[in-house]
Design goal:
With about 120 residues, the chain is an alpha+beta fold. The chain has one domain. The protein is about 45% helix and about 25% strand. The chain has three helices and five strands, in the order βββαββαα. A five-stranded mixed β-sheet has the order 3-2-1-4-5. β1 and β2 form a beta hairpin. α1 crosses α3.
């Protein structure tokens, strides 16, 4: 079993994390641990790594509901600042890409209603 570690930004300077222990890969179970909030994402990453490092060498990471992949727990503890920065940058990149895809889809929809859509 490999735990799922999920980070969530609650407010401008408030982050929390939860740890889940999935039994199968197709369901996300209820959290078995939920932190009540830290003032930076890096602090959250470090705290979670400390909690997990005793029993788990690797963990699946989620941030704001997006899967960020698998990570070595030691790296989380040793590089919490840089990992938090990378995770936020990747999340922003994905959101921007999703926004562009959504905007392009909306444009295609509007154009299809006008009869001016370019079919690829």
């Amino acid at each position: 079993m490999q735990p799922v570690l999920e980070f969530v930004r609650r407010h401008e300077r408030s982050y929390t994390y939860s740890i889940r222990a999935p039994q199968t890969s197709d369901t996300i179970p209820v959290a078995c641990y939920v932190d009540r909030g830290l003032t930076s994402l890096a602090d959250c990453v470090f705290d979670a790594a400390q909690a997990l490092s005793i029993n788990f060498p690797k963990v699946y990471i989620r941030y704001q509901g997006q899967c960020m992949g698998e990570m070595d727990v030691r790296r989380l503890a040793l590089c919490s600042e840089s990992f938090a920065r990378e995770m936020m940058n990747e999340h922003h990149r994905r959101c921007a890409a999703q926004g562009l895809e959504t905007e392009a889809a909306a444009t295609r929809f509007v154009e299809s209603r006008r009869g001016t859509a370019i079919v690829a």
